[in-house]
Design the sequence.
């Protein structure tokens, strides 16, 4: 995305399952501001 929106600020939000943090780490590595929402039922 940064290739097509050079100089822009990209923000993402998504709901992560138990293995969803790999995507989070990759987005952060690429300089994308990412927020993760963890599915509450996983903590029960």
Sequence:
């Amino acid at each position: 995305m940064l290739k097509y929106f050079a100089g822009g600020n990209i923000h993402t939000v998504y709901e992560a399952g138990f293995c969803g943090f790999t995507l989070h780490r990759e987005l952060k590595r690429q300089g994308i501001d990412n927020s993760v929402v963890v599915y509450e039922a996983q903590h029960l």
The mean pLDDT is 79. Strands lie at 11-16, 33-38. The longest strand covers residues 11-16.
